[in-house]
Q: What sequence folds into this?
């Protein structure tokens, strides 16, 4: 069953690219169906059925792909972000050819991300992350103007450096433990104090921090997010960076390396640094998407902070914040895309009072920003709360205080954004704009409802979503 | 042992040359020489299959691809050469960094008593690849597919050069339509009628 999440998109891409023109019309519908099916499966299919041998049909059972609770959370996030990215991309790109290329690249990236969620081997994980990365480089540079190529190139170079570090780490781990499967490496690392294994773990974590855009390796992130076309930014910010960096870190910390105190200390420090620097940098931005990019860096710091706390509660909080961030950051980028399409600019200083003409976009951006800042009862409040509690009970009082105070900074830059863009007097040149088209309003409303729903129904979410994750990490 | 150290030193020198040389052709050749050194090392470590792949793909095919790409670029102008020369000074610190890193590793202590797995014969490699690492083969096929798409998207036709956002594009289009008298059909830029709001 799990293997279908890789093969169905792959067969779809091959079919769509056969030399028959009429197939191109089906690209968008096909991709949306894949996203909807993946979301439905992730929510409704019980876990044992995921790993059942439905795949006996094609001999697929020989592939070592299976899901656990952590994978299901990620697969649901991937499906939601893919839906939003397709809506934004297909309805803001004018050229039909470009749109077809965009859909192909998104499906390819999602195939890679699905594979990364389902494998249980270090090298296979690396290969599927590379699939997503190569698709992302091309997505960023899709419009092929100078800024996009520059942003894509920066991401390419830094991602290549990170890949080298990952590969070196995998090679060292293979040499010291004799295998690359998660379980085997975990068992072999438990007893040993091999210096090579330690260098390997350090190299792995450093590579993943580069891929995840954590400070001080975040140089590529603002340029890549800003320069990418609207749909690509949604996909990148919503799920690609999270999966290639943070999710892989969570998976490795829980299934392979185990709780290593030095790494936890490093993660706590890097997390706190990312929170502060991301939030401070976001305060001074004029470009809407650039501000959101720095905000992403800051929120990923929270996830890493929760991971560094070391307890099962911390990891559960980190995973929950990963899902929440996928939802509210995607919503913010969809809003940015809607605003950019209607006004033709991303410069916040020239905008003003847009919510008079774009009420839905304005309202959903308020929901998203309140969730990001951690205002109850929205979803973001709960995940941040769990992370702060986990960090505090791990004895790291200073880091917990930093996390709480940084919420004030988050509130500050978002309020500044809201004031400049949506509230206030409508700028003269924009008095003829209208609300974003329905195709972009749908993901806005859906994402806002998810944010509100998850927050309000938190007790239900706690039992079905968060507590089971702790059993994964037992 | 000595021979291995010599090959490794040569490898390091060629790799530094590839990173520091300002002429791209010379850098590509240095990279090819580094790949050759690496494949010699692999032969010495009793992995002929890996060595042959390294030689034919990295030292051969990749160098050909680099050379053909370089042949598509324009030669540098005088101003660009000057700027390149000035910027190139930064890279002089690279060999020093490499030697410092090597010294650090020696001090930290690289264990030499590794229980290395037995080098696999050609038959073993094929059976491992097809029977145990199928998922990686699938993944690598996907990477090649992604790379193929990248080349198609980025290199197939000329960039349009118009503004990227919908509104800016629409303004540019209206302006262009007003300016020209005859109806120019920009076919590839028409919104696809199959996709409706």
A:
């Amino acid at each position: 069953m799990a293997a279908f999440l890789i093969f169905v998109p792959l067969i779809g891409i091959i079919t769509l690219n056969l030399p028959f023109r009429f197939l191109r019309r089906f690209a968008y519908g096909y991709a949306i169906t894949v996203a909807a099916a993946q979301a439905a499966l992730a929510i409704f299919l019980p876990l044992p059925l995921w790993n059942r041998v439905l795949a006996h049909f094609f001999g697929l059972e020989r592939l070592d792909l299976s899901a656990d609770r952590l994978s299901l959370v990620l697969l649901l996030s991937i499906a939601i972000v893919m839906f939003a990215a397709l809506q934004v991309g297909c309805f803001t790109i004018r050229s039909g050819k470009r749109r077809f290329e965009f859909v192909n690249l998104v499906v390819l990236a999602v195939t890679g991300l699905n594979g990364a969620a389902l494998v249980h081997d270090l090298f296979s994980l690396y290969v599927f992350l590379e699939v997503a990365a190569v698709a992302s480089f091309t997505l960023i540079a899709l419009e092929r103007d100078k800024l996009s190529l520059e942003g894509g190139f920066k991401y390419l170079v830094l991602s290549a450096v990170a890949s080298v570090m990952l590969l070196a780490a995998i090679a060292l781990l293979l040499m010291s433990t004799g295998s690359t499967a998660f379980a085997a490496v975990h068992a072999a690392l438990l007893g040993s104090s091999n210096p090579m294994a330690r260098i390997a773990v350090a190299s792995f974590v450093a590579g993943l921090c580069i891929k995840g855009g954590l400070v001080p390796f975040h140089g590529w992130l603002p340029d890549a997010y800003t320069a990418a076309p609207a749909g690509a930014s949604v996909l990148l910010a919503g799920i690609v960076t999270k999966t290639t960096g943070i999710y892989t870190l969570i998976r490795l910390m829980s299934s392979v390396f185990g709780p290593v105190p030095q790494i936890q200390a490093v993660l706590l420090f890097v997390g706190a640094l990312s929170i502060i620097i991301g939030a401070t940098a976001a305060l001074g931005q004029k470009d809407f998407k650039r501000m959101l990019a720095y905000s992403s860096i800051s929120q990923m710091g929270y996830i890493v902070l929760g991971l560094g706390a070391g307890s099962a509660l911390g990891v559960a909080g980190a995973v929950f914040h990963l899902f929440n961030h996928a939802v509210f950051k995607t919503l913010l980028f969809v809003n940015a895309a809607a605003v950019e399409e209607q006004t033709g600019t991303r410069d916040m200083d020239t905008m003003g009072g847009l919510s008079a003409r774009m009420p839905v976009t304005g309202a959903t951006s308020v929901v998203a920003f309140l969730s990001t800042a951690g205002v109850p009862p929205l979803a973001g409040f709960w995940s941040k709360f769990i992370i702060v509690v986990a960090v505090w009970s791990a004895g790291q009082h200073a880091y917990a205080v930093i996390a709480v105070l940084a919420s004030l900074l988050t509130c500050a830059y978002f309020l500044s954004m809201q004031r400049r863009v949506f509230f206030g007097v409508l700028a003269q040149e924009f008095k003829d704009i209208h609300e974003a088209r329905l195709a972009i309003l749908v993901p806005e409303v859906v994402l806002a409802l998810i944010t509100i729903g998850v927050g309000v129904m938190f007790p239900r979410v706690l039992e079905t979503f968060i507590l089971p994750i702790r059993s994964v990490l037992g | 042992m000595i021979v291995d150290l010599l090959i490794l030193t040569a490898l390091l020198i060629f790799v530094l040359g590839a990173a520091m040389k300002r002429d791209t052709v010379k850098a590509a050749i240095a990279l090819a020489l580094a790949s050759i050194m690496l494949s010699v090392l692999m032969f010495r470590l009793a992995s002929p299959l890996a060595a042959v792949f390294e030689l034919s793909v990295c030292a051969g095919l990749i160098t050909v691809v680099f050379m053909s790409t370089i042949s598509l670029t324009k030669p540098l102008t005088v101003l660009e050469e000057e700027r390149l020369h000035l910027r190139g000074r930064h890279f002089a610190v690279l060999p020093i960094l490499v030697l410092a890193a090597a010294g650090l590793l020696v001090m930290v202590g690289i264990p030499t008593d590794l229980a290395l797995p037995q080098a696999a014969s050609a038959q073993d490699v094929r059976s491992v690849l097809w029977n145990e690492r199928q998922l990686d083969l699938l993944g690598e096929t996907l990477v090649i597919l992604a790379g193929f798409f990248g080349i198609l998207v980025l290199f197939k036709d000329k960039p349009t050069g118009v503004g990227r956002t919908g509104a800016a594009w629409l303004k540019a289009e209206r302006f262009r339509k007003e300016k020209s008298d005859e109806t120019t059909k920009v076919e590839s830029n028409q919104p696809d009628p199959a996709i409706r709001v």
Chain A has a mean pLDDT of 88. Chain A is about 75% helix and 0% strand. Residues 222 and 251 of chain A are 26 Å apart (CA to CA). Chain A touches chain B through 60 residues (CB under 8 Å).
